[in-house]
Amino acid sequence: MQGMMMQRSLQISDILDYAAEAFPTAEIVSARTEGDIHRQTYGETRKRVAQLAHGLQRHGVKLGDRIATLAWNGYRHFELYYAISGIGAVCHTINPRLSAEQMIYIVNHAKDRMIFVDTTFVPILEALKDHFPEDMIYVVMTDRAHMPDTSLPGALCYEELLHGEPEEITWSEFDENTAAGLCYTSGTTGNPKGALYSHRSNVLHAMMIAVSLAGTFKEGNKVLPVVPLFHVNAWGLPYAGPLAGLTLVMPGPAMDGPSLFKLMDQEGVYSAWGVPTIWMGLLAEISAQGRKPNGFEDVVIGGSAAPRSMIEKFEKMDVSVGHAWGMTEMSPVGTHGMLPAHMDDWDMETRIDYKSKQGRRVFGVDLKIVDEDGNRMPHDGKAVGELFVRGNTVVSGYFENEEATAKALDAEGWFGTGDVASIDKNGFLTIQDRAKDLIKSGGEWISSIDLENAAMAHPAIANCAAIGVPHPRWDERPILVAVLAPGAEKPSIAEIREHLTEHFAKWQLPDDVVWLDVLPMTATGKVSKLNLRKELGDYVHPELRETA
Ligand code: ADP
Known about the structure:
It is built from 17 helices and 26 strands. The chain is an alpha/beta fold. The strands form 6 sheets. It has a 7-stranded mixed sheet with strand order 2-1-11-10-12-13-14, with helices on both faces.
């Protein structure tokens, strides 16, 4: 027997309509590229989003078109999220830290029709524009007074695009599975792969995290997404924030410790979200000032493992840590470290131990760990296996990429995360290792295989492996471990970096090279990274050697 309830499609535009009506005083506060602080309520935002949607339609944007953004966290980027998806187009957020090669690939692969760009990133596009279609429409996200002199053909001004357009719009209804957002993530090799979110998945994700992270999502709380809007929907905050009546405080380009401290202090930010590298900077500033920013009580740390010492520092200044784990392919939140009520009276040390784990699943995401043959392993806190996930907010494949799609899911239809984990009987996940060949530096990916392939083209390198080594600021930094070709002279790390520079962004280049006579191999003839890491157990990153 079927239930007798209406079926209305879940649409992202409903979130902003609701916030504008239900939370008239909640705001988006933005530190702008223009240098000032800008404020607008969700009601005002709703009007500007309507204007932007009309402006997009005036330029012929229709259902399914991909519209790109290359921008910091700010109200205009937020408006783009809603206006683009509101008219059934797809908001493709581009990570400005990608290499030129990767950026050219994704813009062409996505077949973007328009690119909205912050003034800061205009030079990036100017350097790449010849690789993009000639009819690409560029819009610079500022007003006429701040428009830069640019060689971008026919560059439009964002505020002029909105000017004079109606402040009302009736959103058309479409299937809730319509694509709404596109975010590319690094593959272990080759080109980035696109996660294509739908209206349904993004609305569900917003509801899921607002419930599971209830401590953060209290109406009126001021929340700072340091995690970029170009990185997996800023972990869902642009949707879950307005849904719950939060004020969002957007940091713009200034994400160093002193700037974040100042903004948080001025605005009374309750909760801030970002990767461990960001919090290193903030903690240094807190220590310099001898106090935490006014009103700061909650921090969400994810993207890389939060060190126990970092969690301890925050907890001891009464800032509650939620250690979250997720992936671009999961919209992204999978687990969150808010402790259950029965742990409230546990001693501080045990609570910090639990907070160092990656937390429990949010409602709607299922977890399993499996052995090498795909057999399920027990959730006993001891068994360690590869982590698979499933749920309404997990990708079912990659955008226009049959090869990657074919490999994404297992026979039971679960998505393989490439993380290696244990899960205890309380449901707490602990990420133990990474099976995928990727290095994560400051929250951003570097493909070890791509580094290795490019380095192998150097005549003096007979064999090599790229691995991540611990670094206090960037979590991990890449180094190259290499075997010298017979008769060759050892190139310096500077020469190797020069050799690689064409294919990688600067921050992706290895910091050091270690020469070995042979590399440890696995039975199947691949470099054993596990044994290599063990062999380099005493290795210290050059920057730390210098300061030691
Ligand atoms: P995000 O940065 O939102 O987590 P990405 O797709 O860039 O999304 O990265 C996902 C990967 O990052 C995970 O598969 C995992 O390897 C790593 N990761 C994310 N969060 C954590 C965490 N809290 N602890 C350890 N590793 C993490």
